[in-house]
Write a structure and sequence with these properties.
This protein is mostly beta strands. It has strands at 7-12, 17-23, 30-36, 41-45, 50-56, 59-63, 66-69. The structure holds tryptophan (TRP).
């Protein structure tokens, strides 16, 4: 669960990008919200508490599954 594959790198491409952690288990809800401004980066990990991560805003991600961007 907490090996290196659980990490994702997030680079905000605009101000006010939200990185939201969702809980693991039967009750899936927001438990954490982090706001990144342009060019701020965050390295986040899936944990026993976090099963999903929602990102609102323009951002570039690097994950074990590849690189993803929602820039036009
Ligand atoms: N305390 C949270 C946890 O261990 C912190 C966290 C981990 C988190 N990964 C995250 C918060 C991703 C937001 C997004 O699960």
């Amino acid at each position: 669960m907490t090996d290196n594959n659980g990490y994702i790198v997030i680079k905000a491409e605009e101000d006010g990008v939200n990185v939201i952690g969702l809980t693991r288990g039967t009750d899936t809800r927001f438990h954490h919200s982090e706001k990144l401004d342009k060019d701020e980066m965050m390295i986040a990990q899936f944990t026993e508490h976090t099963s999903a991560i929602k990102i609102r805003g323009k951002a570039t991600l690097q994950t074990a599954h590849g690189d993803i961007s929602n820039l036009k």
